[in-house]
## 1
Amino acid sequence: MPTEIPADIWIEIASFLPDELLRNMLNLNRLFFRLAMGVRYRHISISTQNASLSRKLLNRFDPAIAQYTRSMNIRMAPVSGYLALHPDDSSEVHDHRKRSIYCHPTVATQSNNHRLDRYPTVNEMIVALIEVIPGLTGVNDIIIDATDLAELCNLKHLFSMAWSTFGSNLLRVVLAGSLEFHRLAMVSRPKFGCLTDLALDITNTYQLHDQRILVCQIAPFVNMFAGQLQSFRLWSWDSPDLGPFFVHMEPLPILKALDVKAGFNKAFPSDVSGLTRLLHRTAGNLKELTLLLNPLDSFIDRSAEIPVSIWIGELLLNENMFTNLRALEIFPTTLSNGLDITIEIIKRSEGTLEELRIRDRTLDLVEIRTLLDVLTNHSNLQHLSIDACEIDVTTIDLLASRLPSLFSVSLSYPSSFMWQPNVLLAFRNEMKSRKYCDWKLNNFGIWCTGRKVDLLTMDVVAMGIPSLQTLWGERHV
């Protein structure tokens, strides 16, 4: 006689199944229906710019679906025009099988046998969201991106509705937009009792009268959660003076991840003491650090990098700084001592470093050798990303011999010279003679001027690395 398996054991078994298989088991029984619905609707992305699902989710989003949603990505940007759809268009049925559901409300008009679905205005989208949000009581992760939004409409009402519905659940909040956008998000002083991960991206045109928002609204908002934040990110693309903001920040005693991206010469024109103090206070706990403080216009005047280089060097005077890092992403400057300073930082985390990304400094072969000489002592290193001067097999040889246990490598080449057919052809011909049987590499990506190189080149690379499973982290070999 068959024994009935308890539901919690089925749930444990299902946790090992791929998402696509779970989706296909939706009609198997009630348990797998709930599991499949959780996969299908746990993350929803709503955008005014994506018209592939023009009518469905927001217009028909009911509590039966909403209960499964845990993560939301809302992107608001002004668009105009119409999208022509056949009345029997059912492409959204196939798109619903994707992990992320992209949708937006639309306004429909009739035209012969076709319907023209107008892209929604931002106001129409906000109205639809306000109607839907009360049912999304299980959301614990939200991204709201208004980077390209000039008029902020009635966002205050949207924020109030969202914070009152699921604010107490939120573990992560990502806000991207102008300083005024951030002020509207924070003016209601939401109660994020569970918040551990906060990311603030300041975008759009910077205006002088907005400067006080950093000190009077954003700093107090961050301070409300100072005792619970484990991860904090601040990106400032237009680089207002961030010095006063960091000065007014309270200590973050349990912070484990810090990510700061800004133009150093604009973001800290006179006072970097607040950021310095934050790094000193968190030195013992910090596990993940991103410091991309490329001075604006430094490609014209390299001397603009001197202040940030001096500042990073002074951080090393604290013996506890950078000693427990698991992940490091850094702009080492292009100055002669920039790589030396970065290598000293890397040495501090010899026993812990698992992921290293060196950005915006193109390394020649001698510098790559120097870097790998240091990294051979980092037995925990799994992920490496660097910029290199030119593509050659010698770099691959060095990586395979010096770092045989590496899991993932990303090589970027900023020069467009590499796109010349004879350059890639020569590289492929050399690679055909290589076989890295002892290399345990799982993922490899090669980029040139921000674009992936051609698949023919990557397929030749893959033939020489038997352990390789993915290219650029996505394409299966």
Note: Residues 305 and 335 are 7 Å apart (CA to CA).
## 2
Amino acid sequence: MSCFFPHNRKLHYWAKSTLFKPGFARTILLDAGNIPVDRNNKDNQKLFATTFDVLKYGECVAIFPEGGSYTVPGMKDFKDGASWAALEYAKNIRDTGRALSSGGTVSQDPVDVTICVAGITFSDKTKYRSSAVMQFAPSISTAPYVDEFYKDPKSAVKKLTKAVHEAMLTVTVNAPDWDSLNASTMARKILWVDEATIPLPRLRDIGQTLVDLFATTDPSPQLSSLRALLLEYRSCLRATNLTHYTLAGVPLPDTLDPSIPHPLPNRFRVAFSLLVDTCASLIRLPFFILPLLVHIPIYLISKYSLRFSDLEEDAAQNKIALGLVLAVLTYPTLFIVAWFLLFTTPVGGVLAAGFVWLFAVYHNTLIDDNYNAAKRFMASWRVLVGIWAPHAKSEAVAAMRLFGITDKIHGENEVRRVLRLRLEATNALAEYFTYLSKDSTEGRELVDKLVSWKGRIPGAKKGKSLATTKIE
């Protein structure tokens, strides 16, 4: 948000006052523009005094209205802190004008706050270098609430909080439950296998459209079956530590017509795919070996941090925190080594700094393709083992046999199972969209909308619905 907020305006964030104890941390927090907030102070004018000063200087204050970080499928109720601050500021500028809490004054008359509602949507919050989109709802002026605030502060604050909450719902993806959100996410990953093909300005619309589809209160038997299959496929992917994208290198059959039976990929097709991925990786490796060796501690430790929590928010924050700490240590070390090799001269320092900058640019330019190729390469090896050893049982199956649980054993190893579910989920999605397109006008409009957003709807072409297009 700080990097991409419009007009390059600096954002000031609230932080607990206990974090501002004398020392290095206090210097960093204040230098970054953070505002200390003492939550124990019951006098709002004193509580928000520093915030008011920042606003009178014409700066922006960024607030997370949820009041914390949560891993939930939909938007939680907002705290009233942002509304209290905005309306107390309106009262403050009417009472004190240009005066600052420190005793000075600003050069211009301050005006009421305008609340800019921003929502952030991630394609995959825990994935390294995934995409994110920040969208804005229409801004909210606090002026209409000021008169009521003087008469009934709590009522005005609640109304403003409600307005902010309703605006935020229009720029974020919200689901009533985890199953609806997870099923819609899996459907999106099938329809847009390659994240690069997603029209990012429509990322939130795509997500919410699919959530609304799977969150139907009275689903048809076909939709319920599709939802259950998508959730089972997702669960199997997580259990095998594979992703739908990494399996994209294993070719599906030529047709996605649900009326035609499809075999699983045979051994030789997988072996050929593995050979292609291996050659591609070997060609790339010499150009990426140096950035790989320098950054491999960051990659491995960030990956290891995922074990600390199963919650998406915590996992994402752990990866970011550890990655940033290690990057802060890695690049200065790289600079010192380069400078030492250049005899620690002033000119050598400039050259070393330039080298480190170019090295970072080089790494960022190559990392996406190489990272994706490496994941596809490892997935191909696992698939090859699974396909060439069709009678091998997973550890989970062996454990089930040990405890006498034989009714749930399907006689296939985990790789073949995930491939089967991938195929069944893709075909079920194709079948459902075929049904949906023929069932109603609303269904055809939904399918046409997804096609217009470049969704890989099986059997549909851009600008045509399934009802008028031959299944391919």
Note: The first helix runs from residue 24 to 31.
## 3
Amino acid sequence: MEAETATPPESTNNQLPPILSPSLPQHQDDTEQLPHQGPSYHAFNYFLEEMHGMLNDADLEKIVENQKNMHENLEQTAVTLTSLNDLSTQKYDELLRKYDLHAKCLKEMKNDLEYIFKKIRLIKTKVASQHPDAFAKMQKKIGIKQDGDDDED
């Protein structure tokens, strides 16, 4: 038998017909292909070539310029929003500290007022028990309600 020196047939798995990708080289061997060069890579290049033929260069330049302008605007907006976020965080922390101080002050004032009203009730009870006639006259004169009628609490 004679030793044949024929080359293996071309692999058609990763190749497009020449009519679909006229400017792309056809690979003879799958081992020579780079990972990014498969059938989808050839189809993508074909798609780009077709799209490039549909648009003129002036339109493409306008699109690219608009994209650059939008990108710059978005970057400026992101910087502005970041600085606004930082400022609002600082103000929030400052106001939270003030709020906590005011809330603590109000709680202390409430406790103080409760203590004062408790002492006033004790004094009224003591005066009413020691001088009931004088206390009843004064209540009628200034229109003070009885202890059970209070609208406190």
Note: The chain has a mean pLDDT of 78.
## 4
Amino acid sequence: MEKNNPRVNSALMQQFVGQIVRLPCKIKTVCTSALTVEASDGGEVIVKLAVGEQVTETFYEIIGKVTEPGRMNMLIAIHMPGDIDMTIIDKVIGLIHDPRFFTKIFCTTDNDNYPS
């Protein structure tokens, strides 16, 4: 069965260390092997680029493994075209992680991506 990869903001990353997540973000700086991005909650995240991955646009959803709070290793970057309202995305992420909905709709406790 395919696992859910929860969408997170920078504040939620600490709950998912060692797990694969989806991070909607705005690119701030691009270096040879890493990116600095702004997550939907305005927090800064350092992303180690996947081999061969090129980031040339402004908004992406990065799927990757959280190595520590505020840092992740990219598996893939999905371009999000247009001018994205990150405040709306952050509100959706807040609803996803609301205890009333998280285990009932978005994730189950037997899923490896459920934070302990």
Note: The beta strands are 20-30, 34-39, 44-48, 59-68, 71-79.
